[in-house]
Design a protein that fits this description.
InterPro entries: Acyl_CoA_acyltransferase, Bact_Acetyltransf, GNAT_dom
GO molecular function, one term: acyltransferase activity, transferring groups other than amino-acyl groups
CATH topology: Aminopeptidase
Largest sheet: 7 strands, mixed
CATH class: Alpha Beta
Number of helices: 7
CATH superfamily: Gcn5-related N-acetyltransferase (GNAT)
Pfam families: Acetyltransf_1
Helix content: 40-55%
Keywords: Acyltransferase, Transferase
Protein name: GNAT family N-acetyltransferase
Radius of gyration: 16 Å
Order of helices and strands: EHHHEEHHEHEHEE
């Protein structure tokens, strides 16, 4: 078992995992009616370096060469550096509707990382390997990296109805800081959570 920095060659295994971390949101923002299938889009962008979906921002959980989990991370600077790349990729594939949907999601439900926080995203484990502590191991790995990097906390957003993930995060010391109400009937309310790295 190892947790390592992702590489572009991991795209085919990681794209479905990233999608599984928030399928309702991905389907809403990247509508198949206006562009490619979401997993195809994620596959392409993971292998590149310009967007928040890039391998550059992810780690993978691997056993015997098989990728079983993924986790993404950003600070304020690295997240901001992907803004133009995100916009170009979304507009090219999904047009202005995709840009609008993406901006609404980030402004209303899942906001940019706060200063001093290492923000976690795209936390996912392959369906046939869930319930074995893989997500917790990836989060603990990122907590160690966060401490090494001088961050004060880990942070993340979780859909309110994703009770399994919410329970895990609470068990690991995350606390709800803010509840962001959904702005439509498709997306769930989201909870912004932080975990103090120095308690």
């Amino acid at each position: 078992m190892s947790i390592r920095t992702a590489e572009s060659r991991d795209a085919a295994q990681i794209a479905p995992l990233i999608f599984s971390s928030g399928p309702l949101a991905f389907e809403h923002i990247f509508s198949r009616r206006h562009g490619p299938a979401v997993i195809d889009f994620l596959n392409t962008e993971f292998a590149r370096s310009r967007t928040m979906f890039s391998y550059l921002h992810h780690h993978v959980y691997e056993v015997d060469g098989e990728v079983l989990g993924s986790i993404g991370s950003f600070d304020t600077a690295s997240h901001g550096a992907t803004f133009i790349g995100n916009a170009k990729a979304i507009f090219t594939n999904y047009g202005l509707r995709g840009i609008f949907n993406g901006l609404m999601f980030e402004l209303r439900l899942v906001k940019a990382p706060r200063k001093g926080c290492l923000y976690l995203c795209h936390i996912a484990v392959r369906e046939d390997r869930r319930g074995r502590g893989i997500a917790a191991k990836m989060i603990n790995f990122m907590a160690a990296k966060g401490r090494e990097g001088g961050f004060r906390c880990l942070s993340l957003d979780v859909a309110e109805k994703n009770t399994n993930a919410l329970r895990l995060y609470q068990q690991m010391g995350f606390k709800v800081v803010q509840r962001n109400r959904s702005y439509n009937k498709v997306l769930d309310n989201h909870l912004y959570m932080e975990c103090d790295l120095h308690q």
